[in-house]
Input
Amino acid sequence: MHRVGIRPSQIHEYMVQCSGGYSEVGYMRRDVENVVASQKRKQLQDFDSESCIAYLNGKKSSDPSFYFEYTIDDEHRLGDIFWCDGGCRADYAIFGDVIAFDTTYRTNAYLKPLVVIVGINHHYKTTIFGFALLTAETEQAYTWLLVTFLHAMEGKHPKAVLTDGDKAMRKAISTTLPQSIHRLCCWHLERNAQSNVGRTEFTADFKDCMLYTKDHQDFQDKWDAMVRKHQVESNEWVKKMYVDRNLWAEPYFKWQFLGGMRSTQRCEGFNAFLNYYVNRKLRLIEFVDQIDRLMSKQREMEGKDDFDSSYGSPVLCTHLRQYEQQAGEIYTKSMFEKVRTELNKEGLLFIKGYVDDISTRTYSIGEFRKANKEWKVVFHHQTKLAACQCQLLERLGIPCSHSYTVLKAEDVQSIPECMQLMRWLKTAKINNPPQNDDQAEKVYMSKLVRIGLVNAACKSLQYLAGNSLKAYKEAMKGIHSLTLRLQSMSLTTTEQDFERNPDVI
Ligand SMILES: [Zn+2]
Output
């Protein structure tokens, strides 16, 4: 009846008449509307969209932790679409403190802006949290995306968000993620500086103001000098940028953990890949399939990074061997390099003096041949925390050179646990179960995370086993005996797991 144009309310009335009364018909008007709506969804007019949804449905049935959501517009066409897999959700539980919305691929074959939500993993590399194709760049579309994303991630909000500064996106973030710090991407700002003022020298000065200012006064001085030098007092873009300075100037983010992220464009290989596929006229389903391959490839690379970090110990080369050795053992390879740089810098520092308090001692640290430089480091006797004024620990999550001078003076034998950020350690994905106050959420999420983590761990295995026939045989033998052992433990899922999401079972 609906197919020939009869409205749900009329269908219901007709059925009531045929069956002899409202109580006889066996369902409500609302039920008819629901059936009609679900049929509408099935009858997407666009065959490509339809097969794309079917493809994602297929993925969902083979991977219970796969998540996707879409909208249908009034003309039965596919609207906005968001998807991510169990690996993304597991990674977000651990590395979701800072996220970036990469919307570089605005114009593409589908006429839908592609949004890639990314973060940084323990190897300091880009990790993907989800993809979305939106119908339009409106506040409404971005709000839908953010709400859907949070739903997929069990409501966990990021501490900081990086975007390219799109107005609609900014509004959506301020209402949906009101607690998250928002920073604009420095790569986009630099590009905008060039296109709005059009002088390379100005762009360089602007970059200097944006990234290399110590504090608010330093920023103000540099900004004033730059505006005078280039005579851009009346430039609208420059004026607007000054008003919005709390969204992009370094001194405003001194205390904020951003995991070293300043730009939404972190991974060049990744961008090149997307550029290639976004602009070829692939059908939507082919595109989604290609993105799937990209994800597998990225995970395989992570497996290789895990392997590289786990084997072989670095040659110790700093004067603080004890800390360096410990750092080599606990940090991933790329983070260890950053820790080592700080250890090396310590060689030029010295203690100028200190002041005692009840539970703390505040050191003044100087640097060789830099008479005007001084840092204050507060050492807490009980926790062994050395908190430095330079805030590197807060911003990047690794101890700074100044704090090593203090740890050394206090005869602290190893980098204190309170100064190690879990997300940078080799064990980030092993010893880092997500913390959530809600018990039911915890049980459900930890199951998803376990599935995702086992998946990630297997990538490392795949990488190694693929190397030779011998490795392959050894791996298969191991998998077989491990599977038997797990089966004999006859592990069962808890009731809470079942209640929360029967699909997982
Ligand atoms: Zn410091």
Residues 434-444, 493-505 have pLDDT under 50 and may be disordered. Residues 46-184+269-304 form one domain.
